[in-house]
Amino acid sequence: MLWLIGAAAIVVAAPAASAEPASTPYRWRNVKVGAGGFAPNLVFSHAEKGLAYLRTDMGGAYRWDDAARHWIPLQDGNAVGSYMGVESIAADPTNPEKVYLAAGMSYWGEAAIWRSADRGKSWDIVPVPFKMGGNEDGRGLGERLAIDPNQRSTLFFGSRHDGLWRSANSGRTWAKVESFPHPGLGAPEARRQTHAGVSFVVFDPASSTIFAGVADPTRAGVYRSDDGGQSWRTAEASAGPEMLPVKADLAHRTLYVAYATGIGPNGIAGGAVRALDLRHGTWRDITPDRGASAEGGYMGLSADRQRPGRVAVSSVDRWQAGDTIWVSDDDGRHWQSLQERSRRDISDAPWLAWGHEEAEFGHWTAGLAIDPFDSGTLAYTTGATVYRTREGTKPAGTMTWQPWIDGIEQTAVITLISPTAGAPLISGFGDLAGFVHDRLDVAPATMHLVPRLTNTNNLDYAGLKPDVVVRSGTLHAEQPQGGASLGYSEDGGRTWRALRVPALDVGHEPSRRYDLRGDAPIDVSADGATFIVGTPIAMVTHDRGRTWAAAKGLPLGARAIADKADRRLFYAIDFDGGRIYVSRDGGRSFAPAAAHGLPADISKARTRGREDPWPMVAVPGRAGALWFNLGGRLWRSEDHAGHFRLASGADIAIEGFGLGRGADGSDVPAVYAVGTRAGLRAIWRSLDGGTQWTRVNDDSHQWGLRFRTVSGDPRVFGRVYVATDGRGIIWGEPAEARRK
């Protein structure tokens, strides 16, 4: 069973092994989708034109390479899952080589300051005593990490739970600023709760003044120090009831502060924007939208370094009218909304239209930046992508934005299949439903849209007719609760039709549908004619859902999968009863399989949730051939679950596995697995049926060890697909393989 690394979990780097396991050099690349997840903020360097950094909430940090015109992931060699949630980024204001990351997924995970003197090519990682929340609510706040422009070895970090911290030696050691008025609220009361804490730290480069915002409701406000952080005082009167300072920027002796009634990314009902003239010490309310129908708050905020008085702010959670960016050229006295005069050119990521004629302006618009070297370049982040325009100073007419995403792949991938014909890969994503990947280097034209699902939790294809594909998942918010969470395709996933299972009577519960919650997997027979759905009572249809019948002989809760070569064969696991069942009549009826050789207790193979990969896999092209992961050991059957034999040894503990094309002349498939061997957690390959294993990833390709599932390609020897929790789909081939 493959570990599912959630937002609040952490995978610790494996201890060094006493002997280096065998390895096979692989070349690794991303399957191209184009961003896809929430990037809470982007940071332009003030030291060098064309240099920028992006932080994501679960996929690590990126650096924009202006010469190569693409984003470079900076944490792919990291083996600690928590560090892939980046809380803040600080780029040195005068030295373009130096950059710092505040990395930590949640209060319950490890946290560290990452220090680099070569733009993130290499890192010195300093674990810290304060907690972070790079993937918690409030991740769009900031920036919390700041460098003193007058003494660049001095850094401040505003923590969520533990107040304000200071380092005097470029982040090597940290001490709490005891004089800061808000010491922090400590641990949250429950695992899924958090605090906002110190929401931002901003320096005035013309003085020794520091501003820090606090977004905890009981102590909300902006605080000021005029002596380098030795003493602090309140910098402002209240911005209004329930208003929390969430983001700030300072330029030309003016401090701009964005406020919201919540920390986001959801749940913000109102907001404000204020400006402090440091020369006169006066505050002004410069809120763009003050109408009675104003919705949502403000979060993204950026002051123009080239044009005094020019400032931009983004709305957030303005669901009815849609989010926008407001720009002012006169210090907030007048504003212009850009949404109404903007168009999105999404040719690099056409799926961003989500089935509509035009892509939305964006939601969760937490990050916003004006290029400090070019007033016309604006960029903003959303819950699905990053947009940039070069026409930010265009006085009138349509303004064009394009996804600024080349190199960014930041998604949680739940499941994937590589069929024996058609597209090489079909995927199921969290939030984005998933895609047909006709080419691995080109963003898909569209996503799975019928039925409209938030997550796709399982996929299957017909072994002898791979154009027939089925999927199940979690209903999208726009989908009525009486709708469908199951679908089938007869053209390799390019078009879909919805399936609905009728209401069932289960035990003493009232009759209801069990296919609406996202936990009813669907599988298809080898010839594509039969679908079987894992509702509590397994249901079978032979006519594309027009009629359904209960599979006879199966206990409640047993899920069936199909043989990949014999249309009549299905196999099911009953964890509670400790039995494996087989159907030889197309899923109409099942009987217990002999399953000789297996341990009596098969409960260790039980999956933990609907997004976990299934522990039993049928071999493409070979009737009756099965592989079964039982408690970290692989078992094989060649006779329809009649007999099993142990395939993998005790030297490797397997979490999840997939099959691919075997080596030339071999009669066994290649097996790819996520597992631990000799103390090393990695991606492994076996070409001899599970006896010998070699590592195929390396220390530069670990992606936080946040793996969801893995599969080989049945058509291309050596090719493997890895679904990550935050870095999209990674695919690899042996380094010596012919480039295709």
From TrEMBL:
Residues 1-19 form the signal peptide. GO terms for molecular function: hydrolase activity, acting on glycosyl bonds. PANTHER family: OLIGOXYLOGLUCAN-REDUCING END-SPECIFIC XYLOGLUCANASE-RELATED, XYLOGLUCANASE (EUROFUNG). This is Xyloglucanase. Gene3D superfamilies: YVTN repeat-like/Quinoprotein amine dehydrogenase. InterPro entries: WD40/YVTN_repeat-like_dom_sf, Xyloglucanase_GH74. Keywords: Carbohydrate metabolism, Glycosidase, Hydrolase, Polysaccharide degradation, Signal. Belongs to the glycosyl hydrolase 74 family. One of its GO terms (biological process) is xyloglucan metabolic process. It comes from Allosphingosinicella deserti.
